[in-house]
Amino acid sequence: MAEKIRVGVVGVGALGRHHARLYGMNDAAEVVGIYDANPAVAKSVADEFGYEIHDTIERLAANCEALSIAVPSHLHHQVAIPLLKSGKHLLIEKPIATKLEDASEMVRLASENNLVLGVGHVERFNPVMGYLESMSDRARFLEVQRLAPYPPGREGMLPRGTEVSVILDLMIHDLEIILHIVGSEVEKIDANGLPAFSDTEDICNARIQFKNGCVANVSASRIALTGVRQYRVFYTDAYLFLDYGKGAGILHTKDKENLRVVRTKIPINDHNALEKELENFISCVISSKSSEVASVPKVSGQKGMEALKLALDIEKTIEEYNRKHKFEFE
Questions:
Q1: Averaged over 223-241, what is the pLDDT?
Q2: Who's near 259: CB < 8 A, 6+ residues apart?
Q3: How would CATH label the architecture of 5-122+272-299?
Q4: Average pLDDT over residues 39-58
Q5: pLDDT tens digit string along 251-301?
Q6: Any idea where the domains of the chain sit in the sequence?
Q7: What confidence tier does 248 reach under pLDDT thresholds 50, 70, 90?
Q8: Strands (DSSP E) found in the chain
Q9: Is there a cis peptide before residue 95, judged by omega within 30 degrees of 0?
Q10: Which CATH class is domain 124-270+310-324?
Q11: What are phi and psi of 278, to 5 degrees?
Q12: Could you give the CA distance from residue 40 to residue 34 in angstroms, rounded to a whole number?
């Protein structure tokens, strides 16, 4: 039997808990333990899954080959750098960091130390993604919506995700996918957004024009009444509708002979996206152990950094727009 990869999870809150749970179900992984800054959260997850609690990240990492980092976004760099310097493979929840220079340092260290560095853009593992990728070279216009209710409050902490803007919290999922699908450099960005309940943008719309002529219109909100995760992709000869939340899609094509629109339901092989993401990460770690060059996960640190750059460019565009129009927010 092949030796298992020894893994740990740093941060076992809403999302990190699922990392811990799914690693426990992965035949190629052995969960060494968990760490969380909140002892009550750590105890709850440890009791649920039978994992050992470590009182520092360093003690957890000392017994691990690979770790998931699922702490608040602004702490990603602070947590990741010592682990990369000590030779640990990392899967970091999105966004990779909140500053481009921090992301660049993380990517550089992973490369220099021959380490796997993945970023948790879990939508790349969504069951509907395969069909979108199969038609990527034909995309001409994308209309993307990602809406969510405002997250509940937490004692002594900001509501989950609101330590950053909705662009870094939610929209960045779609920015990474769009960059992957379009495969061209950004030429122009128009964007506006505003804070409603947070100190940063809670709602945003961005129009991104690429050098190959493709255009993406992207909206994100965390103050919606219900959740929506939908893509509308237009081609020269077809229209594709994808619902990421429901894992469903419909392709619209033209029947030229009968002059009518044909609607075809897309076959979807359902699966747990996060489970597939962790499998991809562990597989890359296994491959890297017998190679001189680290294997590249589906969403690498470099890809995560490119998505972060676009997100930060959108934030800057919004800042300039609001300053130009003298918009002020409390």
A1: 92
A2: none
A3: 3-Layer(aba) Sandwich (3.40)
A4: 96
A5: 999 887 777 899 999 888 788 999 999 999 999 999 998 887 889 999 999
A6: 5-122+272-299, 124-270+310-324
A7: confident
A8: 5-10, 29-35, 66-69, 89-93, 117-120, 141-147, 186-194, 203-210, 215-221, 228-234, 238-243, 248-255, 260-265
A9: yes
A10: alpha beta
A11: -65, -40
A12: 13
Pick the more confident residue, 135 or 243.
243
- Give the pLDDT of residue 45: 96
Q: Give the distance from CA 47 to its chain's centroid.
A: 28
User: Strand, helix or coil at 71?
Assistant: coil
The residue written with tokens 């392709």 in the block is 251
State the Cα–Cα distance between residues 304 and 214, nearest whole angstrom. Answer: 21
The pLDDT, as a whole number, for residue 254 is 86
328 Ramachandran zone, left/alpha/beta (phi>0; psi -120 to 50): beta
- Tokens 């429901």 appear where? 246
pLDDT bin (cut points 50, 70, 90) of residue 74 is very high
Q: What are phi and psi of 17, to 5 degrees?
A: -60, -40
Which pLDDT does position 1 carry in this prediction?
56
